[in-house]
Design brief:
This protein has 179 residues and is an all-alpha fold. The protein folds into two domains: 114 residues, no CATH class; 45 residues, no CATH class. Helix 1 crosses helix 4 and helix 7 packs antiparallel against helix 8. The termini are far apart. 16% of the residues are buried.
């Protein structure tokens, strides 16, 4: 079985065993599925790193109940398969909202015409990267051995974001009227 087949099988398991149907996934419209995939990928990276395995605790920021955090500390590959399947679920959800209407002769539904429920560029723009997120990205990049230039770019992002946060705290934005 290829890796792609394993990911597809895990996605089917999530639907058939766990009950995470398209309709259910569509209710998670704030990146939760991609985020969950990221947590499982990070858990695998930590377990593969020379610095030792991750803790058994539910990670800070995990968006669902403790009972839904089911990492495989003994099998980081399994966590990567779960991560990939969750990311596929997020991509499928995005694709469903971007898909054209099956209405005849190019007619648009009322929902499509109003843009209701369809993500736009603003709603898909991620929030500013926190320092913690940036540090985690640098750590992962270092752990998996990204080329030095990419690691350097990631480090620049962390430093830039730290400077932005300090500047925001020291010099609040002036009022909108410019005074």
């Amino acid at each position: 079985m290829s890796v792609i087949d394993e990911i597809a099988a895990e996605r089917r398991r999530q639907i058939e065993v766990e009950g995470w149907t398209s309709e259910h996934d569509d209710t998670h419209d704030s990146g939760e599925l991609a985020g969950a995939g990221g947590y499982y990928a990070l858990n695998a990276a930590l377990n593969l790193s020379p610095y030792g395995p991750s803790a058994d605790d539910v990670p800070e920021g995990w968006q669902w109940g403790e009972e839904w955090w089911k990492p495989n500390h003994d099998n980081p590959r399994r966590d990567l398969i779960k991560a990939a399947a969750l990311i596929v679920a997020e991509i499928e959800r995005l694709d469903r909202f971007a898909a054209p209407s099956p209405l005849p002769s190019g007619e648009r539904s009322t929902q499509q015409a109003s843009g209701e429920g369809v993500p736009n560029a603003e709603s898909l723009t991620p929030p500013p990267l926190s320092v913690v997120d940036a540090l985690v990205l640098v750590s992962i990049a270092d752990t998996v051995g990204l080329p030095a230039r990419l690691l350097s770019l990631a480090d620049e992002v962390v430093c830039r974001r730290k400077r932005e946060i300090v500047a925001e705290r020291l010099d609040p934005q002036p009022p909108a009227n410019g005074r």
